[in-house]
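ok so i was messing around last nite and threw this chain in just to see what happens. nothing serious, just curious
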Amino acid sequence: MSLHLNLKDEQGFTLLEIIAVFFLVALLYALVGPSVWNRLDQGKVKATQAQMAIFRNCLDDYRLDFGTYPSTEEGLRALWQAPARTEELWNGPYINGSIPKDPWGTPYVYRYPGEKNQESYDLYSLGADRREGGTGIDADLYLWREESNEAEGFMEP
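result:
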């Protein structure tokens, strides 16, 4: 018995076919990719707004029990863990589980009394760039407590 291999009978792709497929995939990505990434960014902004709306309700419940919002030092942690020497007033947890980070993986910024909103607290996300300031998707997302701002209380500076 003799083994005879005929290379012309083997199945496979030519280099030209592989390059053509790679080019078509790259073209498709270039056409569809930006809209997909934009949708993902919009989803993260909406998720941030939803989380901060939940925080607003939880902070209001906390205030009903204590007559004030948690201090900057106590932070949002006071919503799920009683601050020291306040156990008798604390009717929490006011939020289920620990405080989540924003969709970009950064802790929310909470200050009471607020620097931008002196009548209440400041609550905001640093956005996609994880730094103060920024524009577009990198802009900070604020939750204001002032009635004069946008109807939902969210805005970019």
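not much to say yet. The chain has one domain: 38-155.
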